[in-house]
């Protein structure tokens, strides 16, 4: 099918906004996407009609509980979970990871080993580093291969021992865009008796996740990266989380998932979360799928990937024409399926922030800096204070926007070089 790009764009009010008559081009998507009107409407409707805390017997509290239950069921469908009870919803990925790391720390002792990658966002690094410092754990560092841009199975195998308790791994990099072979890496770590904690924040907007097929123990993502509100969602395998004792208030529920969800939930944002999942289901229905919500979500990703990948290659090809520009990630068209459409680059002798500021001045939104990919820039020898220029595509972007952005980047770099000469 032809991807219904015009119908998709009509669902996102932000895409039609202008600033002093100038259009906006949103290519800041790895840091957060725009939302469909249905997501904003769901949040507003919850605040206006079901605004109450949980646990009572009157109309609004009962309705609020339905909102919470619906959000857990929606995310179970989105991630392929066995049960909504495996879905833990909280403030954001980093907060949830800090909480779960401390909970898992109760099962560890001095001398135990954890493996962290040089490819992860800092939200899946610092919580574990600080846990190791607190408990006297040994940290083993897992680099990524600078030819494949992925974590290699053999490298992981060489780090495992009988003392390995956990592998923290990302699904896709928020800087290089590379997708790791999570299922294979998980299998290796599990064979050594380690738990596997997967950061899927950057992958979730661009590919279907099946937690049961992956075989990991935990997987986390952020709704605001896949057209939803600012929330984090953590899936935990039922037998694993059932055995854990989280930090919580003494009088709060011991049921799942409530005992991991601290305080009053963000009920209105959960309403938006369900609407974000239903947006994918609606897209799948438009693409011809008439089955379950899960099947519609899967079809939506098939259609979106087929649309996004040519845009990513168009961007990569256009950037590759610039002399002295280095793309940090997979550029081979034959390997396009091994990356998400997040493209980062540096230019010899030109500061990334200066490029970003000039392009931003043309109302093209993109990022510069290390983008919390702290370990990646250090492994690559990129000064952390400078970082990269990062352009991130979502399936509401267009080929015309990519072309206009490329024209801007070419022009800005040429201007900056002329100023230097």
Order of helix and strand elements from N to C terminus: HEEEHHEHEHEHEHEHEEHHHEEHEEHEH
Shape: globular
Secondary structure class reads alpha/beta
Q: How many DSSP H or I helices?
A: 14
Largest sheet: 7 strands, mixed
Helix amount: 40-55%
CATH superfamily membership of the largest domain, which one? Type I PLP-dependent aspartate aminotransferase-like (Major domain)
CATH class of the largest domain: Alpha Beta
Q: How many whole angstroms does the radius of gyration measure? A: 22 Å
CATH topology of the largest domain: Aspartate Aminotransferase, domain 2
InterPro entries: Aminotrans_V_dom, Cys_dSase-rel, PyrdxlP-dep_Trfase, PyrdxlP-dep_Trfase_major, PyrdxlP-dep_Trfase_small
Domain Aminotransferase class V: 25-403
Protein name: Cysteine desulfurase-like protein
Keywords: Pyridoxal phosphate
Describe the protein's architecture and organization.
The chain is of the alpha/beta class. The chain has 2 domains: 5-35 and 303-419, Aspartate Aminotransferase, domain 1 (Alpha-Beta Complex); 40-276, Aspartate Aminotransferase, domain 2. Helices cover 42% and strands 14% of the residues. The chain has 14 helices and 15 strands. The strands form 4 sheets. It has a 7-stranded mixed β-sheet, with helices on both faces. A 4-stranded antiparallel β-sheet has the order 11-12-15-14, with helices on one face. Helix 7 links the parallel strand 7 (164-170) and strand 8 (195-199). Helix 2 (37-49) runs antiparallel to helix 10 (267-286) and helix 10 crosses helix 11 (293-320). The N and C termini lie far apart (50 Å).
